[in-house]
Specification:
With 257 residues, the chain is α/β, with parallel strands linked by helices. It has ten helices and ten strands. A hairpin with an 8-residue loop joins strand 9 and strand 10. Helix 2 runs parallel beside helix 4.
Length: 257
């Protein structure tokens, strides 16, 4: 798939998000096929905690080997997505930041979200982006960095001493629906206009029926312009006034992050 995409358009920026458990085995081949960079879900420096939070029964050592192999293969910049949980890895925030500084990885700390329906989300477990920044700043002083483009989901900070940067994604405490520019295509050929969507829009049927690029572009444009998604804003408001209740949503493993 990577090679097909790279051959189709050499100008594409191709990135892969992975749990990293098989990265040591496949990173060189992926780089050779045309992959540019990887983002690895990386929630803890403790083996037991890492397995619990990732839901993958793979040793932490395999992920660490995968990161090193990906770095040698030139798949960079390497980003680490850390879902911060008050009752999970909160005590490791500074240690994780130090790990990123030491190895040249860019960490993205993500507020724990109610993606899909199976992660048992509890708002009390959310560690806010503000708390994360304050904890790191107390040890490694930070300064804010402006957005590189509209719709960038991470608030970026760089270390004052030049030791790299981190980002925080405050989807719970500071939702950013109004600036969202992300659309997702599932393996079943459905277009989703929100990470928390309940339904997808079928693109496979018109594609198989003969729609050309122009027709598909027009169809996607019409779907996007008609979107009313603002789930994160609605969730935050409901949490504040005590009316929040879970709703059915597409599972994240079907559409990506």
């Amino acid at each position: 798939l990577i090679r097909t995409l790279a051959d189709f358009d050499p100008g594409l920026d191709l990135a892969l998000t992975t749990n990293g458990s098989l990265l040591a085995r496949h990173a060189p081949a992926l780089a050779d096929a045309g992959l540019d960079r990887v983002t690895v879900s990386f929630h803890s420096l403790d083996d037991t905690t890492a397995r619990q939070l990732s839901g993958v029964d793979a040793p932490l050592s395999a992920v660490l080997d995968g990161l090193a192999t990906a770095k040698r293969a030139g798949l960079g910049p390497i980003k680490l997505n850390v879902v911060a949980m008050r009752d999970g890895n909160a005590s490791e925030i500074v240690d994780l930041a130090r790990f990123g500084r030491d190895h040249g990885y860019v960490l993205r700390f993500i507020e724990y979200m109610d993606v899909g329906t199976v992660n048992g989300w509890d708002p009390a477990a959310v560690l806010s982006a503000r708390e994360i920044v304050e904890r790191i700043d107390a040890v490694y002083p930070l300064e804010p960095v402006g957005r590189s483009h509209r719709g960038e989901v991470a608030e970026r900070y760089r270390y004052v001493d030049g030791g790299g940067e981190i980002g925080v994604i405050p989807s719970i405490t500071q939702p950013f629906c109004g600036d969202c520019t992300r659309v997702r295509l599932s393996a079943e050929g459905k277009l989703y206009t929100c990470l928390f969507a309940q339904i997808g829009h079928d693109l496979k049927t018109p594609l198989r029926a003969g729609d050309d690029d122009a027709a598909l572009a027009a169809r996607i444009r019409a779907i996007w312009r008609a979107r009313t998604d603002r789930y994160s804003e609605e969730r935050t408001a409901a949490l504040r006034d005590g009316t929040f209740s879970a709703i059915p949503k597409v599972e994240m493993f079907r559409i990506g992050g």
